[in-house]
Design brief:
The complex is a heterodimer of chains A (357) and B (552).
Chain A: H1 4-20, H2 26-54, H3 85-98, H4 100-103, E1 106-110, E2 116-120, H5 123-142, H6 152-161, H7 173-191, H8 193-198, H9 201-222, H10 228-239, H11 251-266, H12 274-280, E3 303-304, H13 308-321, H14 335-338, E4 350-351
Antiparallel strand pairs in A: 1-2, 3-4
Helix pairs in contact in A: 1-9, 1-11, 2-11, 5-6, 5-7, 7-9, 9-11
Chain B: H1 12-15, H2 45-50, H3 72-86, H4 88-95, H5 108-113, H6 120-135, H7 137-142, H8 153-163, H9 171-175, H10 182-195, H11 201-213, H12 221-239, E1 254-257, H13 261-264, H14 268-282, E2 286-287, H15 304-321, E3 325-328, H16 333-346, E4 372-374, H17 375-384, E5 400-403, H18 406-410, H19 416-425, H20 456-462, H21 464-477, E6 481-484, H22 487-500, E7 505-507, H23 509-516, H24 543-550
Parallel strand pairs in B: 1-2, 1-3, 3-4, 5-6, 6-7
The chains are: A mainly alpha (357), B mainly alpha (552).
């Protein structure tokens, strides 16, 4: 159920556009819905990121994954435990580009004699990295549909991506990689009992959407031979805000485009937000220079403390008896002794050493 | 018959049977099993009153009705909204998880218990499911399909059980591709529970003690002085040296702050004795404080506000006494507070000077703002400059391993300093397997206020991964002692080692260093600070090592 329903929904979305698109609803599926989805994507992302950015980072809480910078003869781990902003940027770069944290992944096992062992487990790292990088290359390749003339970079990427020259038109490596990685991620979600147990319908929905997009794209290039000139005409129309819906674009194209639109509209309201989110993660994007540079909490407020004066008032007799120095002797004392001894704080029971500004 | 709060109640053969297969029912439909031995007793009303906390009352975890205050649902949701707007971490960690499951088998409580809600991802889903229902469009529209659920009294019970079954050790966060930090989730969960007056006494009583008397154990000033004097007597017996005990001394150069656990509990007391002895040897002008007599801060396990209320004493006292800078002893969570929170909460400490070692002249620029350094940073520098005469052979009967404590490891990154000191003090040092040390270190199972005997089953289960690694070096290298620079470790790992690696004793690093130091003016040494015979000297030169290896 957790899996079946999302699968049916994605299939239904595709079928809807596949049938209705060529049957008169071309403007709806080719123009109106893509624009609406784009508006939702941009608006939703701005809203989300603004929501996150608005929430302050009251404390500097990086997770240190290497040696700190302390004594100058001890070598610090500059990327896994950055001491400076530049180091933190470096840490983020290897996180975003290479998935550093997943690269640490281990799998716990219990041996026959009861021992726990932790083996390196890089399958998830490899699968996730392949999927995300392939997706980036796919996006770059798709620039050919919205640019005229097509930039040299896009052409170069296409050439490299198809250098094996299998099939005609040549199969792009990244298409295969993308679909393969998605199938691995889906298979893992189903086969690993723990991951399966924590999975929500929305986790499957995201995977099926991406798979649907990938498969329909692959089908258009290699199975049904969609009219690419017509597809480009439609895409260029959207980009130039002069939409046209050429006759020649077929049902598969409408299905593909509609799934992309669904993904775009869904993204800001889903876990797919992890893409912008990773950049803001306070355990990763801050330098661990806490003791060197003061971090300010914008909503800091005074709290009720037990002042030294209260403490001594309560325990003075015992302190004096034990020979522990006190600010005020138990007998009534002269004012002179008091001067400079305890600070008569504005309020005895609240204090705010930060001196809020 | 032993009770559920005793180690002997749990046959090892049974606890080592690990089953990580999830149950047939979804976690949202699986009732919480509140069995004795796996939860902590509620905070007593009098402790809540000392701290002015709401809904102070006496209740029991096994009660059907937890006497939640009227309007509790709104209280929780309002509290959640407030924290979402105040902590980017909380908002982000509610939104970005993709449930990839990388964290699942990284938690010591999951590994030891197999309870799926101890997977970090599900611990966060306990809150996320409520967040989705009340704060997201998807959750409102699609409910269960979007992973949303209603906030009910059973959810509150589940929160209480599982947020006090997390030691905030942050191991999972090391592996999370988005850096989602379960410590942050648990801290928010505990704050929300606190709004309803739901605390555990093992945390809130130390908080109340620390607030009023200056330390978690509630040791009053004269008691503290007595304790330190007893220690001075033992030091004299072992070394012939009489150390000073400066208390609340105005104008001292350094304020020394350490966890109060080291004042009373074996083996923490030997660490405390070692501090005094080493400071004496180095001629340091320092002082203890009775008002700031705990560096530990169970406020961290309560709420950000409680943390700030307890931590305020350290700077206040440094100012009153007129010291130049602050030195911190061997503690775990204390160092998370000192390193990541103190300056922000109670700084700036502009009345202090940047720490400068009176022994070597080294200026500790990395503490330029906080003005507080770790004893291991200080001692590593001292040893590097050859300012202590060391005879590590005095520790030759010890085959040592080192447990990185969670907070100094993952909220600071102090890995090499303690190892440098250990290597200088011991000839036989062996690391545990690499996936169990440094940033991947496993918790003792009793941090974050969970180290009480009524929670024995979870402590033993949570201590399994650590105990298992200790057992490995015990078998491979004959390790017979484990060093840890954390007072909670020195208390809880004794139990963990007795259970999972019997024969391995627990010690602080300073103790090893003091035992290896040749002090000026010491009498002919035959015994170490535990008053045990030194190897190669004195009455029991040979028997000691084998006795340790077979102990237990």
């Amino acid at each position: 159920m957790k899996m079946l329903l999302p699968l049916l929904v994605v299939a239904a979305l595709f079928a809807l556009a596949f049938i209705a698109g060529p049957a008169g609803a071309g403007w709806l599926f080719g123009v109106a819905l893509p624009y609406a989805a784009l508006a939702l994507l941009v608006g939703g992302l701005l809203y989300r990121v603004a929501l996150w950015a608005r929430a302050p980072v009251p404390f500097r809480i990086p997770v240190s994954c290497g040696q700190q910078a302390s004594l100058d003869w001890i070598r610090p781990a500059r990327l896994d435990n950055p001491r400076s902003a530049a180091g933190a940027v470096g840490r983020m770069a290897i996180e975003v580009l290479l998935f550093r944290s997943l690269l640490r992944n281990t799998r716990a096992k219990q041996t026959a004699d009861g021992r726990l062992v932790y083996g390196t487990d890089l399958a998830l790292w490899a699968g996730a990295l392949a999927m995300h990088w392939a997706m980036l290359v796919l996006l770059v390749r798709h620039l050919r549909f919205v640019t005229e003339p097509v930039p040299a970079l896009v052409l170069a990427v296409e050439r490299v991506d198809s250098f094996l020259e299998i099939g005609l038109p040549a199969v792009y490596l990244t298409s295969v990689l993308f679909l393969g990685a998605l199938l691995y991620l889906l298979g893992r979600r189903l086969a690993n009992p723990l991951v399966r147990y924590v999975s929500l319908p929305t986790d499957y929905f995201a995977l099926f959407l991406l798979l649907g997009i990938g498969l329909s794209g692959f089908a258009m290039r290699h199975l049904f031979r969609t009219d690419l000139a017509a597809a480009k005409e439609l895409a260029m129309g959207l980009v130039r805000f002069a939409p046209v819906v050429p006759e020649a674009v077929g049902g598969v194209f409408f299905g593909h485009l509609f799934l992309v639109a669904a993904l775009a509209a869904y993204l800001p309201f889903s876990k797919l937000l992890h893409a912008p989110g990773v950049f803001l993660s306070p355990t990763r994007n801050l330098a661990n220079n806490n003791r060197a540079v003061r971090h300010v909490n914008p909503w800091d407020y005074p709290v009720k403390v037990h002042s030294y004066e209260d403490y001594e008032n309560e325990l003075r007799e015992k302190m004096v008896h034990a020979g522990i120095p006190v600010e005020r002797e138990p007998e009534p004392v002269t004012a002179a002794v008091l001067v400079g001894a305890t600070e008569p704080a504005a309020s005895a029971d609240t204090q705010d050493p930060a001196g809020r500004v | 018959m032993s009770g559920p709060d005793e180690m002997s109640h749990y046959p090892r053969a049974q606890l080592v049977q690990l089953d990580w297969k999830p149950p047939r029912t979804p976690w949202t439909e699986t009732p919480v099993d509140l069995r004795p031995g796996t939860f902590i007793y509620p905070g007593k009303a009098r402790n809540l009153r000392i701290m002015d906390l709401p809904n102070a009352r006496d209740w029991a975890v096994t009660d059907a009705d937890w006497k939640l205050p009227t309007g509790w649902r709104k209280t929780v949701l309002d509290g959640m909204a407030e924290r979402l707007s105040r902590f980017r971490s909380f908002q982000l960690f509610m939104d970005t998880c993709v449930r990839c499951g990388a964290c699942a088998d990284k938690c010591h409580f999951f590994l030891g218990s197999g309870d799926p809600r101890n997977m970090p991802v599900l611990r966060a889903e306990l809150l996320r499911s409520i967040y989705r229902k009340d704060f997201t469009a998807m959750g409102r529209l699609f409910g269960e399909l979007a992973g949303a659920r209603e906030l009910t009294p059973d959810v509150i019970k589940e929160w209480f059980y599982y947020f006090y079954q997390c030691t905030e050790c942050r191991r999972c966060s090391v592996f999370c591709p988005y850096g989602i930090d379960t410590a942050e989730i648990t801290m928010m969960g505990r704050e929300l529970l606190g709004l309803l007056g739901l605390y555990v006494n093992w945390v809130i009583e130390p908080v109340a003690n620390c607030f009023r008397v200056g330390n978690h154990l509630g040791i009053q000033p004269h008691g503290m002085k007595d304790t330190l004097e007893f220690m001075a007597d033992d030091i004299e017996d072992a070394t012939g040296i009489r150390v000073d005990i400066p208390i609340n001394k105005k104008g001292a150069e350094i304020l020394f702050v350490t966890p109060s656990g080291d004042f009373v509990a074996d083996p923490g007391i030997y660490t405390c004795m070692s501090y005094m002895l080493l400071f004496h040897e180095l001629g340091i002008d320092y002082t203890w404080s009775t008002y700031a007599s705990d560096g530990g801060n169970f406020g961290l396990f309560t709420s950000h506000e409680a943390m700030k209320r307890l931590n305020a004493k350290i700077y206040t006292e440094a100012k009153r006494l007129g010291v130049k800078w602050i030195l911190g002893g061997e503690c775990g969570h204390m160092w998370r507070v000192i390193h990541q929170y103190m300056d922000t909460m109670n700084g700036p400490a502009d009345f202090l000077e940047v720490p400068r070692s009176p022994v070597t002249g080294t200026v500790f620029e990395h503490a330029h703002s906080t003005k507080m350094i770790h004893l291991m940073e200080f001692m590593a520098d001292v040893i590097r400059h050859g300012k202590l005469e060391l005879d590590p052979a005095r520790n030759d009967h010890i085959r040592i391993t080192f447990h990185d404590s969670c907070n100094p490891a993952r909220a600071m990154g102090i890995f090499e300093e303690p190892r440098y000191v250990l290597r200088a003090a011991c000839n036989h040092f062996f690391e545990m397997p690499e996936n169990t040390i440094r940033e991947q270190t496993f918790c003792c199972g009793g941090g974050a206020g969970l180290g009480t005997d009524e929670n024995m089953e979870m402590r033993l289960r949570g201590g399994l991964p650590r105990g298992n690694a200790v057992r490995w070096v015990q078998e491979q290298h004959g390790v017979n002692q484990l060093a840890a620079m954390c007072a909670i470790d020195r208390a809880t790992l004794v139990t963990v080692c007795d259970y999972w690696a019997p024969g391995v004793k627990v010690t602080g690093i300073s103790e090893l260093l003091a035992n290896a130091t040749v002090f000026r003016g010491e009498h002919a040494r035959t015994r170490n600070l535990r008053l045990e015979p030194l190897p190669g000297i004195g009455e029991l030169a040979t028997g000691n090592g084998s006795e340790e290896a077979t102990h237990g």
